[in-house]
Amino acid sequence: SLQDERERNRDRVWGAELEKFIRESGIRTVWQPVVELQSGAFHGFEALSRGPKDSMFEMPRAMFALSSRVGSSGDLDRLCRASAIREGTGVASEHKLFFNVLPTTLSGSSWSAGEVPDLLAAAGRPPGEVVVEVSERAIGPDSAALVASWDALRNEGFRLALDDVGTGRDGGEALDRLRPDYLKVDASVVRGIDSNL
User: Hey, which residues does 96 pair with through a beta bridge?
Assistant: First the structure.
């Protein structure tokens, strides 16, 4: 249809802008504290990726949705991860560094050799201070590859977090299969919990 053709043309134009932005490493990282509720002490900082200010890529949802449609989500994910590790030294220093990744990028060799170890070494940060997060929403129907990737990361010392718990399709089976170190429960699950048994 004409509407579909317009959307494809728009994605081509915006996709070219996104690829340029990725090539030029135009990502910004903002930081959200992860706080221990009992003590109020900082436990770590989560890296949140943003595109250039006042651009269509400023918000991650739009940026990642487009990257998925145009086939550049892996490149964008690697750029966000690299930015978080590089900038995390100054922000998170003695605290844990949390960052989100796409499940499909966890099986790449960049985790055990090459990019990630080099970035961590340059930042002076051991894997045990890094918490790799995967959204429960992003887990597909076949999680066997993700389980294998998580086990490999765990063996290298990384900590693992399951994000957006309660929003996935598998009714909590991901918890049993993945055995994350951290659970980040989606707000929709706990909203109004103080007034609803």
Answer: 44
